[in-house]
Every structure is written in C-alpha cells, then in structure tokens.
Protein: GH1 family beta-glucosidase
Amino acid sequence: MLMKTNESMTLTRADFPQDFVWGVATSAYQIEGAVQEGGRGPSVWDVFCQKPGVIADASDGSRACEHYQRWESDVDLIASLGVNAYRFSVSWPRVQPLGEGAWNEAGFAFYDRLLSRLEALGIEAHLTLNHWDLPQALQEKGGWESRETCEHFVRYALEISRRFGSRVKSLCTHNEPWVIAVLGHEHGVFAPGIKSRRAAIQVAHHLLLSHGMALKAMREAGVKAALGIVLNLSPIYPASSSAADVAKARLDDGLNARWYLDPLFFGRYPADVMAHLGNDAPVVQAADMAMIAQPLDFLGVNYYTRNFASSGNPWDVSSTGNQVTDMGWEVYPQGLTELLCRLHADYPVPSLWVTENGAAFKDTERDGVVDDPDRVAYLQRHIQAAWNAREKGVPVGAYFAWSLMDNFEWASGYAKRFGLVYVNYQTQQRTLKSSAHWYSGFLKA
Structure:
C-alpha cells in the first residue's frame, strides 16, 4: 500500500496526472541475444565478455532472453501489465555492423516490427540510441576516446531518427555516460575494459559532445520526438561530519553528477573538478561546451540507491540499518525525492523522468509462482518518493520500472535478477512475479 504524505489515504495512479508516463525498461544487449544473427556486427560487450574473469558467471549476452526471436510475445506481455510506455535501446551494431558505412536492413526490420507491435497495442516507444554496446569496429579505431566517434554517432542518430523519429515518443542519446567512462575506461570492470583516468575523462567529454551534436542535428532535421539524455545519479553523503569527509562528498558529487549536469545545462565543467583532475582534464575545443549545452526536452534519471563518501576506509552500507539488495545497494527511497528536488532547484530542467528504478533480489520460481515481496515494497516506496517530489513542485513526468524481465546483468552475468518477470534461462519461460502483478494492479486500478 502506498500512503500519501501526511494523509491516511492510499496513493493511486489517479493521484498522478493523466499524461504521466508509466513504463518498463530494457536494453538491447541485455535481452536480445542473437548476436550473430540478422547481419549484426560484434559490439564491445561481445568482445569484453570473452576475457577471462570479467563476468561473474563467465556468461555473455549471446543468448540472453532471446528477445530477438520472442519480441512479439514479450510486447504482448508488456501490454498485459497496463503500462503506457516501453523504454528500450537500439543495438548500434545490429543496424550498422561497423559503426560506419553500410546500414543493415535486417536490423532495421527487427525494430520496425517491434515498433509496429507497440503501436498496435497503444504503447509509447521511448528509444535509447546508446546503451553501451558500441560497435567493436569503432572501438578498434579508438572508440569513445576518439573524437571521430562523435561524428559516427551523429550519423547513426540521424539515420535512426529519419526512419523512426515520427514513431517514437522520445529519443535518448546516451544511457549513463558515467558508466561507459568510469566503469569502462577508468576501473576497467565494464566494456571495453580500459584502466586509465585520463582516457575515462576524455571519453566522458566525447559522450557529452556527441550528445550535443546529435541533438542539434536531429532538431535541424525536424525530429518531433522529445530529445534528452539519461544519467545515473544518487545523493552522496559524507560518511562522517569530518571536514575531510565533507570535502570528499563534494568532490565525489562533482565527479559523478556535476561533471555531467553542469556542461549540459550551463556549458561548463565544474571548476573544482577540473582543478582536481589536473593533467587528466579533457582536451576541449573552443566550441565544444556550447555544443554540449543544447536545450533538453527531458532529463532521464536512473536511481537505485544513495552513496557515501569517506576520506578513510570505504563506507559499509549495512551500518545504516536499512535493507540491502542482492547488489549490495541500500534501499533508500527518500534519496529519490531528495535527488529530484535537488535537480529541480539547481538546474533548469524542463521535465524530469525516472527512467530506471528497481532492485535485484534472490528470486526463485516454485510451481509457476515467484513471490518477491521485497521488490513490491521497493516499487511502492519509490513511486511514493516520486509523488513526494511532485508535491514539492518538481516536474516529474515519467516512471519506468527496471526492468521488464530478468536479463544479462553486465559484469554480474545472470546471477542478479532485476525483472518484474522471471526468466528461466534454460527454457526461456517467462513468469510474472508478484511485483509484476502489483504494478499491473496499481496501473489498472
């Protein structure tokens, strides 16, 4: 049950405006499989997964959820939930195997069929251009470290928008550029597995630059879909009241949040972070910052938990006393309200969308039933948190649960389950969890 703040009334869908967007989300590499079918080229994740020890269960996305074959029944399943929107990504190497040059019509035909089915069922399509699966051929030419990749991305964005721009409600350039930059190029735990802070910072700049270039080009081409970008953001608290921890929290917020937000909205990088980076600061050309700061129709926010910053030992999240998910992330819904309010106060955001929100728990299927009360409570509390932000005047316009179904969870392989729908990876049988039934009931009530 969701309880309205300071009231004894149950929060329902009717407490949100009629045009509020309710959806579920996925990404191409995590569900599609069929990595060698239909003319698709290899992505950086196909290659990364082949490295020993980088994926927890030594798996990959070659089969995933077989969505490439099962797309029609999967869309019917989405419709059965009562959502009015579906957020998904295009696999760049599926539609352009080399990331440049020839287009793959078989890849476009797959997404055309998907969009047609969504249209027939009255479900809005929210399309992401880059959810981490850069064509490997471009990586071999420098990947996101190369400024030339920005030009390739613009051509890709224009082709997708030319074909599908009138059929989708929104187009997102990049999903979580911090992940690509930091986890992929500084820590090396995600594709492409590079360990260099200088490379990571340059990658972050090129991702932001390509975003601005693509938005400008799509607008000039007359694209009517809402255009934006999605960031993974969390409030960052100092682990103690010490001056060192407070300073560390401010710097971490700069590296994780302001490094992306300030260029997008103010056309500049935060001065304190630039000073901290020193020789690792990015190479920025004269017109870059103005290009990055293209007007946004929406900012997508992916929220899962809050973070702590300590100048000493790593913070043990279990010491908060709050529940911890199977990912080791603290359940902290009030952090979503705080984050949305902060974004509204600090930046001129026209509309804020919660583009991912969910939790991994150790789900088991017994006789066709998957009971996941912890996920039900997680969804309830975070939808409440989004409503609380709206009550404070924040323009929250959408909520997408992550994720539609269990899938390939990147470096965690198939060990972590975020889905509202349970997937038996041997049989590919889909089973609605209790959380799916709850979300459907909430939406249909």
User: Anything to note?
Assistant: The chain has a mean pLDDT of 97. The CA atoms of residues 262 and 332 lie 25 Å apart. The radius of gyration is 21 Å. The chain has one domain: 13-444.
